[in-house]
TrEMBL record, chain A:
The keyword Heme does not apply. Transmembrane segments: none annotated. Keywords: Cell cycle, Cell division. Pfam families: PBP_dimer_2 (PF21922), Transpeptidase (PF00905). GO terms for biological process: cell division. Coiled coil: none annotated. This is Cell division protein FtsI. Residues 52-134 form the Penicillin binding protein A dimerisation domain. It comes from Paraoerskovia sediminicola. Residues 155-487 form the Penicillin-binding protein transpeptidase domain. The keyword Cell division applies. SUPFAM superfamilies: beta-lactamase/transpeptidase-like, Penicillin binding protein dimerisation domain.
From TrEMBL, chain B:
This is Cell division protein. The keyword Cell cycle applies. InterPro entries: FtsW/RodA. It is a multi-pass membrane protein. The keyword Protein biosynthesis does not apply. Residues 448-488, 513-523 have a biased composition (Low complexity). It comes from Paraoerskovia sediminicola. It comes from the Bacteria. It is found in: Membrane.
Amino acid sequence: MNVPVRRLFTVALLMVLTLMVSTTIIQFFHADTLDADPRNKRATYDEYGRFRGPIVIAGDSVAVSNPVDDEYGYQRSYTDGELYAPITGYFSVVNGTSGMERAENDYLNGTADDLWLDRLTSLFTGAQPQGSSVELTIDPAAQKAAWDGLGDQRGAVVAIEPATGKVLALVSKPSYDPNDLATHDYDAANQAYQALVDPDNDQQPLINRALGGDQYPPGSTFKLVTSSAALESGDYDPDTVIPAPVTYTLPGTSTEMENYGGEICSPSGEMTLAAALQMSCNTAFAGLGVALGDDAMRDQSEAYWFDHDLSIPLPVTPSRYPPDDDADGSSPAKTALASIGQGDVRVTPLQMAMVSAAIANDGSLMSPYLVDTVRAPDLDVVEQTSPDELDRAISSTTADEMTDMMLSVVDDGTGTSAQIPGVEVAGKTGTAETGVQGDAPHAWFTSFAPADDPQVAVAVIVENGGSLGSEATGGRVAAPIAKAVMQAVIDR
Amino acid sequence: MDTVEPTVARPRRGGELWLLLVALGLGIGAFANVGLRTLDQLPENFYLYSGVLVVLGFGTHIVLRFRAPYADQVMLPIAIGLNGIGLAAIYRYDVSQRLRGSDSTLALGQVQMSALAVVMACVLIFVLRDHRVLRKFTYTAMIVGLLLVLLPLVPGLGTTINGAQIWINVAGFSFQPAEVAKIVLAIFFAGYLVTNRDTLALAGRKVLGLQLPRLRDLGPILLVWAASLGVLVFENDLGTSVLFFGLFVAMLYVATERISWVILGGGLLVAAGIFVATSIPHVQQRIEAWIHPFDQAIYDKSPGGSGQLVQGLFALANGGTFGTGWGNDYSRLVPFSYSDFIYTALGEQLGLTGLLGILIAYLILIERGMRTAIKVRDGFGKLLATGLAFTMALQLFVVVGGITRVIPLTGLTLPFIAQGGSSVLANWLVVALLLRISDAARRPRPSPSAARSRPEASPSTSNPWRPSTRPASPTSPAPRRSGSARPPQGRVRSVPAASRGRTTPRRSRRSSGRAARTTRTPR
């Protein structure tokens, strides 16, 4: 009977070998396909179930992962969620991720390439790999001032440190509480999300108004760009006298352009460039833009980073100077409208803050950034952002001349309500027609201070004039908010 | 005596001791790891559980030293090691449940059942001094085996759990009689076949070159076939039915050395297979899930879909080559990752490397069982050892093959590893029997001098049943009694009638007589 026993063992051996082969096929050859199957929740659980590093603002964690007893293991929770939501975004099992949670995901969850050493260590020690903490550049006082300043009005505020590009405040209103989206209760999270994106809800809180969204016409704040183009051309200085008629007929049309409220800029029909900016004279700037030409205007816009991609590392929608398409792009009428920030010019509040910041920083436009330091769980610095010049937007001379002109706007022009006692404030107002019949114009203000040693550049927009509606101007509605933010930074 | 003392195998159990240390280290290390990774501390009752494992391992070792000193040295460490690893995986499941707020104490139950199982294995080794005693119970075993198989169908006793009616419930304890039935049936098959092997092998007509058995010899075989089909149809237990039938066909082949039996058995299996695959919806679903597991409609179907199978594959894939490490798995996503699908939980945590190691451990255990079968000198022992070792192989193949899509999925447990009292108990009894038989197989044959000095000693001096042993007839004792220098070969070492009374127990003599009758069948 020994022969059949041996044969039977051969059968058993073949059976076990078959199992070895089938197991190898699954675990080695098919593993990637199986891992990628959408029904395999392991990737999700891996992402949501691991300890995630905190998002830190001025030493306080505003987004943290807490261990919980559910299938995910960790619950993301946010302190001052609404205040920081446009920055942190949300980390939701049901609704995905956004904001910094998405942009810095690799660091927060510990899978970034730079963290390979930590992962290797945890492979040997058996500890679960941990995410890094991401420390932001935000100044809580400035953020709070911007938040309080906007109050219940829709709009956005961005503040930048001109010398470095650090983003000190980034507020978008209305906001939302990311905790509502991050809950592991599927139905609650889903409901919260649906309410936020409901098309009937004209608030649209998930839109980051500071960096993206539908963007805004910049109105008169764009006259900073037009002025820069004029000064950079070499043909103008602040005292150059330019035409400032009561009405300006757009070239090639019969459309008459008026000044704000139909007022007369100058009885003589002409004024200096500085005076035109101080009064925000539309007819003067429309003519100036046409005189400079569409190319010069576009070049100057691009030098301020219009029409360029930007990531801070939150994605920023590029601001647009109207394209030069042969059909009708560069018609002088369009250039005239663009020169006063109307027509097809569209900007983000961040873009306008960058314009002020470049002027404040002697013409050097620093790359704006939100992430200051990334620290591994053992507090070692993994990454530290160093300031980086994005572009030289204007010459140092132009910057000085622009600063002086902007100072006069606040001293004795349209932006007096941004004055801070004892501090020289340079600014520019804007009241931008929305192009929608019956809608009150947007109120703009962009500024920096102190003028001799700029610590902060700000841009504020209050949608549709905020609480003042059609009575609103940039000077009345937006400038006080900018003032509060600048004051918060200067007083720190 | 003026003869040279033959080189006699000595009882050596030192190797077992070392292997036991390794096995205990693996099991206890795994257990500790699970606690440290998931709870940042040693598991509660760590020292108690580990202590129990250590005591069980070394206790069995000591029992073997006294009662089966020549027994195989590798089986016990492998069984202890697999049991320990299984315990860690079950504890891991408990932790994952507890972290989610539901109470789970499967590991505690498994420790208790393992202790009970090992103690019963020791008792079996202690009480059963000679495995051939079991042959007396051949037909008792048949009746008990069939009863055990049919018990779950008794109203009020049987319980249906997860679709399969394979449980009985007695006094609050649920039990899977099929697990024990496989041992009892292996005893029956061995006893029946050793008696009837010649009839089955030689009588009957030849058709197309195949020796066909006579119809009247087919009776018990058809009974077994019907019983295993009954298990399938009435208890919805595909795995057990395959296990029983495969076991019987394999043992039939070993006993008769006739490939015709394998073909006949295979034919019956195929016939049964076609019948159930076309007529039993439960089986149809399994086959569908086997062929198209990723089809969304089949995946979503519940019950009877491929959800569990696919989730198991995901777990294996996540383990990859080296695994996630103990406690870093998501095997809670796989239903029954502590019992029927524990293979995927191990695969996720230990990776391909770990699973290949576990498969090799099983292969060694099976090989040791088969080697025992080859070495042991009595036909009953050969058949029983073969059957027991082959059940292990079959069970492994049915479980793992089902999970890795070699065959349709059926519900059987991974020996020693999977949670479940009946399974642990049955497999430890299998190991106890194999150890007992291996002791007989490796025990040195006493030279006549040894036989005289230790009259109670050897079971190996008994009962040749092969026709070829007949030359060692009762009339030829003389040369042996005079004492040859070399121990003679097994087949010629038939016990002389005259010495029988002195060297072997009564019962051996009786079975010897029966064997002699069998061998008289005309050739």
